[in-house]
Every structure is written in structure tokens, then in C-alpha cells.
């Protein structure tokens, strides 16, 4: 929740979308892609990546604002909002320039909850996180 964090999130969003564009050159990845990466030029990729990164962080910031207002201590789980905050923020931000079909949005939100849980468990097991959630 710092300017450095916001800039880092935007930078990693840009890096991630260029990686996804590369992966879209493989037919198996292109079939599961939500965005038409190969249709975007470099500037469009930078813009969409920045939107995704900033949107994810702003979604987390908004969730934290409400979490504080509800007196939920920092670090305490708030299911499902802890799992969906960044996804909703990213989807809202990217929808400003590239609205996704409703079924894509629903699929992403449904898949995010168990994937978030699995990744957090793995990070906890590797000692990268102090709590399993």
C-alpha cells in the first residue's frame, strides 16, 4: 500500500502481459487466453498490463479500506474478499479498454478462489508466508 508497491505492481503487470503474449504463440495457451494478445501492439500491451497491475492493487486497497471499517484486524482472513479483491480490481480496470465476456469473468472469479488457496498453502509450506491463508 505504498507508491513503490503500486509502481512495482504496474511494472510486473506489464512484464506479465508480455510473457502472456509470448505464451499465446503456443496454440494450447492461445485457446485458454482471455485476451487476444497477438492483436495488441507493444504500446497497447504496456497499457493493458499497467491497467491490470494497477487494478489488482487498487482492488486490494479498496478491500483493505472496508476491512478496516469493519474492524477486521490486519492479517486476519476475510473470505472470499481476500481471494477476489485483486481479480475484481484487475477485471474492472481492463474492462475500460477491453470488456471480457461475462462467462470469462465468472470463470476467472470461480477459479481464483481455489487457486489462491492452493498457492497460499504452497507458499506457507515453503516458508514464504507466515500464515496458511
Short description:
By secondary structure, this protein is mainly alpha-helical.
Overview of this protein structure:
With 133 residues, the protein is an all-alpha fold. The chain has helices spanning 3-23, 27-32, 42-69, 81-95, 102-125. The longest helix has 28 residues, at 42-69. The protein starts with a helix and ends in an 8-residue tail after the last helix. The model has no long low-confidence stretch (mean pLDDT 92).
Name the descriptors:
133 residues, mainly alpha, 71% helix, 0% strand, globular
Measured as a percent range, the helix fraction is over 70%
Count of DSSP strands = 0
**Fraction of residues in β-strands:** under 5%
Global morphology: globular
Helices and strands, with pairings:
Elements: H1 3-23, H2 27-32, H3 42-69, H4 81-95, H5 102-125
Amino acid at each position: 500500500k505504498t507508491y513503490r508497491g503500486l509502481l512495482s505492481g504496474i511494472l510486473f503487470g506489464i512484464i506479465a502481459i508480455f510473457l502472456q503474449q509470448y505464451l499465446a504463440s503456443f496454440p494450447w495457451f492461445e485457446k485458454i487466453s482471455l485476451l487476444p494478445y497477438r492483436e495488441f501492439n507493444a504500446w497497447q500491451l504496456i497499457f493493458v498490463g499497467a491497467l491490470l497491475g494497477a487494478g489488482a492493487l487498487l482492488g486490494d486497497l479498496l478491500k483493505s479500506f472496508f476491512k478496516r471499517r469493519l474492524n477486521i484486524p490486519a492479517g486476519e482472513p476475510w473470505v472470499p474478499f481476500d481471494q477476489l479483491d485483486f481479480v475484481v480490481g484487475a477485471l474492472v480496470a481492463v474492462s475500460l479498454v477491453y470488456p471480457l465476456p461475462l462467462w470469462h469473468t465468472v470463470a476467472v472469479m470461480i477459479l481464483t478462489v481455489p487457486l489462491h488457496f492452493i498457492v497460499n498453502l504452497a507458499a506457507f509450506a515453503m516458508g514464504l508466508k507466515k500464515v496458511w491463508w
